[in-house]
Write a structure and sequence with these properties.
Layout (H helix, E strand, L loop, with lengths): L3 H23 L5 H27 L9 H14 L6 H25 L5 H20 L4
Helix pairs in contact: 1-2, 1-3, 1-4, 1-5, 2-5, 4-5
């Protein structure tokens, strides 16, 4: 069973990873509508990350962020996948895959957490952001 702090740390890292994943592909996007959509999703993840950080700090805990190696790996993997196909459809597909992984992982964490309050709320909002992100990107496939 997860403790509240562990779920908040997960939300912080999960939102950071979502933001990093989007940031890694934004430079390749040519379609302005897709770019606006991704920037909006990136902002939602940034907001969730900040809220989780604030909750952790209010409990006297230090928020953990995604490590530099993970961020670099995300950049390299995105660049590699876009080497042959930089279309909006490919970018949407990759981002949808990232959202789906995040939703799945968040759901697992929610099943392991039996409390209520801000941690559950933030995790549910993180999961909802991923689900909404998938729906927003479907027209670009």
């Amino acid at each position: 069973m997860l403790r509240e702090e562990e779920l908040l740390q997960y939300v912080c890292k999960g939102a950071d990873m979502g933001r990093e994943g989007i940031h890694a592909v934004l430079g390749y996007v040519q379609d302005e509508e897709l770019k606006r959509t991704l920037r909006g999703q990136e902002e939602i993840y940034r907001t969730l990350r900040e809220e989780a950080k604030n909750e952790l700090r209010s409990r006297g805990k230090i928020p953990k962020e995604v490590g530099a190696m993970t961020k670099a790996s995300t950049e390299v993997m995105s660049a590699g996948k876009l080497l042959m196909d930089r279309s909006g459809s490919k970018i949407a597909e990759m981002t949808i895959q990232g959202h789906n992984m995040g939703v799945s992982k968040t759901l697992q964490h929610l099943h392991d957490y039996h409390g209520d309050g801000p941690a559950r709320d933030l995790a549910q909002r993180l999961m909802a952001a991923g689900q909404a992100g998938v729906e927003e990107l479907k027209p670009f496939l």
